[in-house]
Amino acid sequence: MLIRCLYLVSFIICLQGCVAAGKGKAFQSIEYASSQEAILYLYRDDDTADFRKPDILINGKQVTELPNKTYYRLVLAPGRYNIQTKWAWDVEVPPIDYDLELVGGETYFVRLWAGSKDEGLIITGIPSYPVMPDMSFFSAAFLQTEDEAIPVLSKTRAVSAN
Q1: What are the residue boundaries of the structural domains of the chain, listed by start?
Q2: Which residues are within 8 A (CB) of 87 and not within 5 positions of it... i.e. 6 or more apart?
Q3: What is the CATH number of domain 2-158?
Q4: Rounded CA gap, 155 and 150, in Å?
Q5: Strand 61-65 with 55-58, pairing
Q6: pLDDT tens by residue, the chain, 162 residues
Q7: DSSP-assigned letters across all residues of 101-135
Q8: How far apart are CA 158 and CA 44, in angstroms?
């Protein structure tokens, strides 16, 4: 009985995450920065911890949560920024800690990725706890070109700030 209850609770949590992730406006086009500002697109399209969403912090301040298959657009003053992810206590994905220098008039694309690996193979679509022995999780941030970012962004939806 207890196991059934745990499965039911896990299923409900999963459904809530799936519904919440698709609420924003679908990505349509890049907005470019003026010479006095920089635009930063943060986006996530991994499948690991699909129904979980990390907090996104810029210079230590939480700006949003980033569900899977979503993006968040920020307009920032030129300067140095620290981008971090913070997952819930029960998610074994390590945080991202990424520094980036933004220049006025430029648009930046940072892809945030979380995954699991076992003996060098990436395994996607698994629960937040490992189900296989010796499985570990990783996370990464990739600065991408516009040409690399557009195909991924075109499959995402916007999230709004908290």
Answers
A1: 2-158
A2: 49, 52, 54, 55, 93, 95, 114
A3: 2.60.40
A4: 9
A5: antiparallel
A6: 545 444 444 444 444 444 444 567 888 888 888 899 999 999 998 766 566 889 999 999 999 999 989 999 999 999 999 999 998 888 778 889 999 999 999 999 999 988 776 534 444 444 444 444 445 777 888 899 999 999 999 999 999 755
A7: EE-TT-EEEEEEEEEEEETTEEE-S--SS--STT-
A8: 11
